[in-house]
Structure formats: structure tokens, C-alpha cells
Design a protein that fits this description.
With 177 residues, the protein is an alpha+beta fold. The protein folds into two domains: 81 residues, 2-Layer Sandwich (GMP Synthetase, Chain A, domain 3), CATH 3.30.300; 74 residues, no CATH class. The chain has three helices and eleven strands. The strands form four sheets. A four-stranded mixed β-sheet has the order 4-11-10-9. The protein has a three-stranded mixed β-sheet with strand order 1-2-3, covered by helices on one side. The protein is elongated, with a radius of gyration of 21 Å.
Length: 177
Amino acid sequence: MVTRAQRAWAVLDTVLDPEVPALSVCDLGIVRDVIDHGGELEVVLTPTYSGCPATEMIEENVLEALRAEGLGPARATLRRAPAWTTDWITEDGKRKLQAYGIAPPHTVTPAPAYAGAGSVPGAQGFPLRFFPKAALVSCPRCHSKNTERLSAFGSTACKAMYRCLACREPFEHFKPI
């Protein structure tokens, strides 16, 4: 027999994230628990970051979906500790991000350091510093690692804006947190 909490999990897997509508709130990993208290369901949510503007909308959408399926009454509880991390995004969620055109956090690979990283004498005796390149991000369209970051922030604070130098398409990258 399927429990009320299991039915709630199935419903929550259909509730889309308002900022990345390719992912459900379960794919994103922000639904931490569903607890059946007998007369009431409690859905424990961890926002992607404190102050996320979509948090209230997510709470409302979660509770409305449960009510629409006849699983209410229900309440949402925000739990900010432990803090959400991109490790909580499911593997299916990462595939959905890529298909949607957003590079998921797992596509980041460290770039090789410049040869002779460190400092060398420069003009007028001031040292020149060489630093390793930033991490490489694969293009979600053509999978090239020949990409460049255009901006540290994309349409939301959790994403950065990139451009693929191979296919010339801009794309967002869900930053690893």
C-alpha cells in the first residue's frame, strides 16, 4: 500500500522550480523530507540560498499541489541548515538542466595551470603573477570546453553567463555551491 507521504513525494516531483522550470523541486533537491503527522503533512524545504526570491512561490506551489491532489492539509517548513548545495541536485536533474540549455554544476573541470605558475620579475622589478585559469565549463549544446565566462551572474544569482567559442552560443552555468 502506498503511504500518504509517498503519494506526496510523487506529487512534489511534478512541482516545477519557478526560476528553472525544467526541474522539479525534487530534482533540485530542495525538498528534504515529507512527514505525515496524521492530520497534517509537513514538507521540509531548504532554499537554494538564503534570500532566494522564489522561496515563497515554491512554498505556495508545493502546498497547492498537495491540496489539489487531496493530500492536505499541509504546511511547509524551511530548514536552512545544513545549507543547500548543488550536490543535492539529482543526476536526472543535471541531465534536465543540460537538455534545457544550462550547463549543470558537474560540467566544471579544473583548467591546467599556466606553465611556470608563480611570480617572475617584471618591469621595474615588480613581480608579474601568473595564476591558474578559471575552471572550464562544457557547453550544454555542443559539449565543447572551449568556453568563456561573460558574467559571474546570469538570470539568477545561482547561475553565471558563459559563451561557447566553438558553436558561438551563449548559455548559463548553474554554479557549484
